[in-house]
Design a protein that fits this description.
The chain is 45% helix and 13% strand. α1 packs across α2, α1 runs parallel beside α9 and α11 packs across α12. The chain has an 8-stranded parallel beta sheet with strand order 7-6-5-4-3-2-1-8. It is built from 12 helices and 8 strands. It has one domain: TIM Barrel. The chain is α/β, with parallel strands linked by helices and 290 residues long.
């Protein structure tokens, strides 16, 4: 079981929109040194929606090769097409990914039974640990606790990334799940609170710019040292909020460019951070002492 800070890694791009492979290499090395527990590649923050399928798989393969077994790679392989999700997940497994992150099918808004059948079909096609990903604010569909509980009994489904931000709902789910099934926060502002209720870590956007701080906050929380973890969480609180002033990954890419970590490149329909939010992101960076 992966525990701790799992960075929802950006896919660095040049200003032209081309993938910046050199910057990706540097980011992977940075997270290994900073104590990040795992790399979540080609998810929402990694702009999977605007990468071609060959690019998607190339980022996964590049990340696995660069990591060289030093840090687990969680490959985003979700799709609103069950067939495509199977293809991507099989390819990630063949490339050597350590786990797959499967988002709920977006746009077509399946029923709870449709969600259950979708994830069951993908799981049956691979021998790879599967992490479910519920983010209703992005997908238009909300996977119920009851459906997660059903899926926790299916094959190699081992965890959930809960990006609802509803801590009480997450806590209730954790109480009903077996200890072998992990629930991770997918919401930086409420991650510490979910870990107080038994969450096993945080799949973090903020970790892109505050890798060592997020890793230490999660480490302390998982050891039960919540006061010390809260001190770090307080320093990160402004940044946690500022990085969602516009849709992710717009603010985090701007913040990383501000810190000279990457170029501020992305692909349409995403556009650079609006000038009206620059000051708030800068304030979050300053508060976090970056």
């Amino acid at each position: 079981m992966i525990t701790g800070s799992i960075v929802a890694l950006v896919t660095p791009m040049q200003l032209s929109g081309a993938i910046d492979w050199s910057a990706l290499e540097q980011l992977i090395e940075h997270h290994i040194q900073a104590g990040t527990a795992a790399l979540g590649v080609v998810g929402t923050t990694g702009e999977s929606a605007t990468l071609t399928v060959p690019e998607h798989l190339e980022v996964i393969k590049f990340s696995i090769a660069q990591a060289g077994g030093r840090i687990p790679i969680v490959a985003g392989t979700g799709s609103n097409s069950t067939h495509e999700a199977i293809e991507l997940t099989v390819a990630a497994a063949e490339a050597g990914a350590d786990a797959s992150l499967l988002v709920t099918p977006y746009y077509n808004r399946p029923t709870q039974e449709g969600l259950y059948q979708h994830f069951s079909k993908v799981t049956a096609a691979v021998n790879l640990p599967i992490i479910l990903y519920n983010v209703p604010g992005r997908t238009g569909v909300d996977m119920s606790n009851e459906t997660v509980l059903r899926l926790s009994e299916v094959g190699n489904i081992v965890a959930l990334k809960d990006a609802t931000g509803d801590v009480q709902r997450g806590a209730e789910l954790i109480r009903q799940l077996p200890d072998t099934f992990a629930v991770y926060s997918g919401d930086d502002p409420t991650a510490l609170e979910l870990m107080r209720h038994g969450g096993k870590g945080n799949v973090s956007v903020t970790a892109n710019v505050a890798a060592s701080q997020m890793a230490e906050m999660c480490r302390l929380a998982l050891m039960g040292e919540f006061d010390a973890a809260a001190d770090i969480d307080k320093r990160l609180s402004g940044l946690n909020k500022a990085l969602f002033l516009e849709p992710n990954p717009i603010p985090v890419k701007w913040a990383m460019a501000e810190l000279d970590m990457i170029d501020d490149g992305m692909r349409l329909p995403l556009t650079p951070l609006s000038a009206e939010y620059h000051a708030a992101v800068k304030a979050g960076i300053a508060q976090a002492q970056l």
